[in-house]
Amino acid sequence: MASQQLAKNFKQSVVAALWLSFLTMPLMVIRVDTVEKTITWRWMHLLWMLVGSFVLALVWYFLMDRRDRGGANDGNLNTEAAPSRFSIWLNNPRVARPLMAFGLLFAVAFPFLFSMYQTNILISALIYVVLGLGLNITVGLAGLLDLGYVAFYAVGAYAYALLNYHFHLGFWAVLPLGGILGAFFGILLGFPVLRLRGDYLAIVTLGFGEIVRLVLQNWDAFSFGPSGISNIARPGFFGVTYSVSQATTYIYYIMLAFVLLTIFVTARLKDSRIGRAWLALREDEIACQAMGIDNTKAKLLAFAMGATFAGFMGVVFAAKTTFINPASFTFMESAMILAIVVLGGMGSIPGVILGAFLLMLMPEYMRAFSQYRMLLFGATMIVVMVFRPQGLIKARRKIYKVNTKPAGQA
Amino acid sequence: MSEMNSAAVLAVRNMSMNFGGLRALSDVDLEVRAGEVVALIGPNGAGKTTFFNCITGIYTPTEGEILATARDGKTHRINGMRTNLVCELGMARTFQNIRLFPSMTALENVMIGRHCRTKEGIFGAIVRGPGTRREEQHVVDTSYHLLQKVGLEQVADEYASNLPYGAQRRLEIARALATEPFLLLLDEPAAGMNPQETLELKEMVIQIRHEFAVSVLLIEHDMKMVMSLSDRIYVMEYGRVISTGTPAEISADPQVIRAYLGEETDA
Amino acid sequence: MEYFLQLFFSGLSKGSVYALIALGYTMVYGIIELINFAHGEIYMIGAFTGLIVAGLLTALGWPALAILAIAVVVAMVYSGAYGYTVEKIAYKPLRNAPRLAPLISAIGMSIFLQNYVMLAQTPDFLPFPRLIPDLAFMQKYNSFLGTSDLLIIVTSIVVMAALNFFIKFTRMGKAMRATAQNRKMAMLVGVNVDQVISATFIIGSSLAAVGGVLIASHMGQINFYIGFIAGLKAFTAAVLGGIGSIPGAMLGGLVLGWTESFATGYVSSDYEDVFAFLLLVLILIFRPAGLLGKQRAQKV
């Protein structure tokens, strides 16, 4: 039985490998230069394609069989057979608490244990944790596929850069403003897309993100165009001057505090009246409204909350790199943040954190992979959707404690 | 029945609904009085669900008046009112093709119904002060109580999508009740249920009506249930009300028999 | 007047290419209600395939028009094959999943294909040979209508006429229309829906390839990123015309082409792409059904 299956998969994989090799042959093998009139043949690539696609096809068919036999992922995310041993282990408070304490201790000690270079990388990862958690509100909880999320990030970054340039406003003065501006733009975008269905909403948000980027790129008088803004001030610390490495450590702690705050806020929101309304909105818009929830308000709130975090992070980003230009805010950035949320698990806070670390740190520490980064991101999004739509860590719903004697009646 | 003379909680007058050139509802008059169970019956495609959609604000009727009298005694014209406000006013519905929130637990589904009766905001949610915690606990407790009423307390923490069909229908009713309605609108609550489940459902509706003092307007195809449960019945065909009366009157009306059984050649 | 005509015809040729790509979006959406995000990349792959064929045949010394014809045909075949494969990998397994799932998968596929071409070929712009010669009789119109513009317009008209014939009169075309109206019902009366979906992807993808090769030859350079913007614009065209409607896609393409052409000609050329996106946002907000689309009542 099993061997029969294996033979079938083997045959299918051979066919798939041949087909994919045929498909990729021209692009992988041939390279032409029509000016110099030269043609380069790279036959080795074909061999790699044959072997690589065969292996991948085997894995694909194996997973496909498992999925179809389980029948679990076909639309209904809730019929998981049993939580994995790992997640049971992770959910045990006797494991989870020391683990979290250790993680926090490690995070606090990090800048003293590792180089400034490493700290910088971690700062970036932490920024993406917050961005991921912010987008998780809009996409994961409320189910509004926002593909222009990076626009809010840009709003925060440019707010700080410009206010710093023109009025010498400091980091701490602009930080709250970044959040507020983010929320404001979130609502600005939210209003027109309120009536749109899921896929149209995705496209409009994408268009919005591109418009913001194109305006920043072309409106030289306002944004200094493609060359961007440099010499942005780092965060101030009661007027004390400090070195670059001290500044890095300082920003690191700011980010660490921010991550904790974001986790706290999003966790609280998720299990609140508003969080439940977002979930209901995601699950069934019509039923949601028919049960007395104001969809308009819930959607605007989701956009605004998500955008607020992006606005904050924009300010931090500008202060960290001291230089910004429109190239930092392309659609690929939005796609990356979306990949974090999707891989981690839509709606799941630990999932999104894990997703951010995986997707941000892996390419950094596997240099050989760094040029394949976006390729892998794209592939990840497909594979996760097909085989594990709930992501790495599935969002769990809270189990409420009931006072068995009801206090009053409805 | 005894409530015959009480005031109307829902009064629909001359309501029509056009979709482009198609007239889905035509001059419909309908009334539900306080405490009544009213049934809306008719062949498939007669416009019953369209009627529900019109009175709950999903569609805006082309002509006519819909007047609803809330618990506070005030009468509102609700033509084209936003769906969530209709619900907040006190008219809660279920759906013909069950619309629960599949990846939320049964308890949470009911808690959603409490949304419009509670008011915790974003800052309350983040700070979670004593007021918020009290409100949350109250929401949980009342929701659980409602699950008990429909016999689903055992599966409170199950995902709604994992419940059997009949349980999903009852969960929808509990969710609607959580919004504290004065009028409960049930769209084919017994569809897909076996006779035993249908019987239990009927008992449940009767009990709910007394305990929560709600009026009920239901669309149903199960004639046995309709006849034994309703105070009055409206019969629709091709978007019009063709007959109305008590179950006894309706079952004797030749027009109704014709609508259901087709034209008899030698009548 | 000459300036106006110049803008008119450049808008027309641009618009015809948008229309060619938009057809792929609209056909796929009509049948499986999915925005095929990777469609722009299929167009880009068509252009690259065309470049490779052109490079090989130029080395053999073939005449330009013959090269163009062969490049278009090969690009159509390859893009069609890519479209077919993309559907099988990224969309078919998700046919019963919640709506967001295939959309995210499509975005992933788009990113994947872009980076695949970037890694397999080059991140830089590649020069594309001019395969469309200047014809002698076009000399006197050259001030406002180039040969390549004319060729693009004529080819697009021919291809779209052929598509219309196919949809209206062939067996597969009828099956497609049936599936678009009601997939379940089509299945019940014996239409092989899988086959119809595959055919839709293949046809839409090959149409995009025609546009890819023609525009690449017209512009003279390509890179892995051209599909993203072109795809977005073509999607705008599809929505503008009314997504799901084939004449709508053609009309939408033309309207968008002219809008861009005149706006950049008379207003400002810096914001060419902004005009398109603005148009997209405005239509979706004020007339989401598009110019020729039908407003569908929501089922409750």
Give the topology, please.
The complex is a heterotrimer of chains A (410), B (267) and C (300).
Chain A: H1 2-29, E1 30-33, E2 38-41, H2 43-70, H3 85-91, H4 93-113, H5 116-141, H6 150-167, H7 171-193, H8 198-218, H9 220-223, H10 244-270, H11 273-283, H12 285-290, H13 295-321, H14 331-344, H15 349-365, H16 373-387
Antiparallel strand pairs in A: 1-2
Helix pairs in contact in A: 1-2, 5-10, 5-13, 5-14, 5-15, 6-7, 6-8, 6-13, 7-13, 10-13, 11-13, 14-15, 14-16
Chain B: E1 8-19, E2 22-33, E3 37-41, H1 48-55, E4 63-69, E5 75-77, H2 83-89, E6 91-93, H3 106-113, H4 122-127, H5 130-149, H6 165-177, E7 183-187, H7 195-212, E8 215-219, H8 223-229, E9 232-237, E10 240-245, H9 247-252, H10 254-261
Parallel strand pairs in B: 3-8, 3-9, 6-7, 7-8
Antiparallel strand pairs in B: 1-2, 1-4, 4-5, 9-10
Chain C: H1 2-32, H2 39-59, H3 64-91, H4 100-120, E1 126-127, H5 147-169, H6 171-181, H7 183-188, H8 193-219, E2 221-222, H9 226-241, H10 246-266, H11 272-286
Antiparallel strand pairs in C: 1-2
Descriptive report:
The complex is a heterotrimer of chains A (410), B (267) and C (300). In chain A, 71% of the residues lie in helices and 2% in strands. Chain A has 410 residues and is mainly α. A two-stranded antiparallel ribbon of chain A has the order 1-2. In chain A, helix 5 (116-141) crosses helix 14. The relative contact order of chain A is 0.13. Helices cover 38% and strands 24% of the residues of chain B. Chain B has helices at residues 48-55, 83-89, 106-113, 122-127, 130-149, 165-177, 195-212, 223-229, 247-252, 254-261, and strands spanning 8-19, 22-33, 37-41, 63-69, 75-77, 91-93, 183-187, 215-219, 232-237, 240-245. In chain B, a hairpin with a 5-residue loop joins strand 4 (63-69) and strand 5. Chain B is globular and about 60 Å long. Chain B starts with 7 loop residues before the first strand and ends in a 6-residue tail after the last helix. Chain C has 300 residues and is mainly alpha-helical. Helices cover 73% and strands 1% of the residues of chain C. Chain C is built from eleven helices and two strands, in the order H-H-H-H-E-H-H-H-H-E-H-H-H. The chains are: A mainly alpha (410), B alpha/beta (267), C mainly alpha (300). Chains A and C meet through helix 1, strand 1, helix 2, helix 8 and helix 14 of A and helix 2, helix 3, helix 4, strand 1 and helix 9 of C.
